[in-house]
Amino acid sequence: MRIISGKYKGRRIFPPKNLPVRPTTDMSKEALFNVLNNHFSFDGLKVLDLFSGTGNISYEFASRGSAPITSVDGDFGCVKFIKQVSSEYDFDIAATKSDVFKFLENCKTSYDIIFADPPYGLDQAVFEKIVLTVFERDLLEDDGMMIIEHSKYTKLDHLSNYSFQKSYGGSFFTFFELNSTDDDEELPDDSIIKIIDEDEG
What we know:
Layout: H1 26-37, E1 47-50, H2 56-63, E2 69-73, H3 76-89, E3 93-97, H4 100-106, E4 111-116, H5 124-136, E5 140-150, E6 162-168, E7 171-176, H6 189-200
Parallel strand pairs: 1-2, 1-4, 2-3, 4-5
Antiparallel strand pairs: 5-7, 6-7
């Protein structure tokens, strides 16, 4: 596993072989960050990495200057490893051992980017619940983006706030954004006339 860009570009990280993970491949990760690079300046982005595993995605954000980063995983070994790497590289990553849904239900913070990489074998309903919970809890900043990594067997493009999807090899990334709203609603004609009359009087 290597960091593909930023301050620590090219640096290789070697997680323990006994971690119950399926890290995002370098090819898929590079393609993902090329997409994000068109939407964001990474410096100072507030990031939430769910099902963070080895911390692969968190390190990439951190190397590019994003901070603070919160990494959430239910496995003690994964969390311990992320803490070790974060300390070694002085990354602003807070690794938290928690069930993802419990974390989301108690979360009081909103993020610029929320990334989730659940095990591919989980039911479709679990993937949907992650997306629904994030938007119901208002955990995404107005100009933020949520990305779910999944296999071709999981379909998420029917959900509200769906934006677009990319596929790289056997990995699919589905992107969600808050629906844009027009804050400047048009006033009915009689309201406009009333305002003009009051101003003139």
